[in-house]
Amino acid sequence: MKSIVALLAYFAVGMGMFQLHNAWGALLGFHIVIVVSLLWVRPNIPIAILFKSTNIKWILLSVLLCGSSGLGLHFLWAYFGSATDLPAQIESLGLTPATWPGFIASFCAGQPIT
Q1: Exposed e or buried b per residue across 12-42, where buried means at least 16 C-beta atoms within 10 angstroms of its C-beta
Q2: Residue 104 pLDDT more than 80?
Q3: pLDDT (average), residues 81-100
Q4: Could you tell me the pTM of the whole model?
């Protein structure tokens, strides 16, 4: 049973995006499943360890890598294809110009932890 725990994160993202049509639900579901899975698979691991690192180089690398993923997506967009009306499609997922900064901050802050 523990071997399929990793697949639950993908299931949570799929549910958020395709069932709920909500990017926030997908992001929140992903993080909840990762934390719950970690607690289930490794119940004796202290939660504080997720927020500590003794190597500043790994922290900076994580921040740069996660922060630059959007820029990489921008340059690879031609390979992924484009939607006919991308702004409308993004808004249908619950992301508006007012919510983008919070979503980006949440994504960048949460990804290195999970």
Answers
A1: bbebbbeeeebbbbbbebbbebbeebeeeee
A2: yes
A3: 81
A4: 0.53
Residues 6+ apart with CB under 8 A from 6: 37
Question: Which amino acid is it at 5?
Answer: V
Rounded distance between C-alpha atoms, residue 6 and residue 41, angstroms: 10
CA dist., res. 25 & res. 31, Å (int): 10
| Residues whose CB falls within 8 Å of the CB of residue 89, separated by 6 or more in sequence, listed in order | 83
* Residue whose tokens read 């994580």: 62
Under DSSP, the state recorded for 12 is H
Nearest to 24 by CA among 105, 112, 83: 105
- For residue 76, give both structure tokens: 């690879």
Residue whose tokens read 């993202």: 13
Backbone angles phi, psi at 20, to 5 degrees: -85, -20
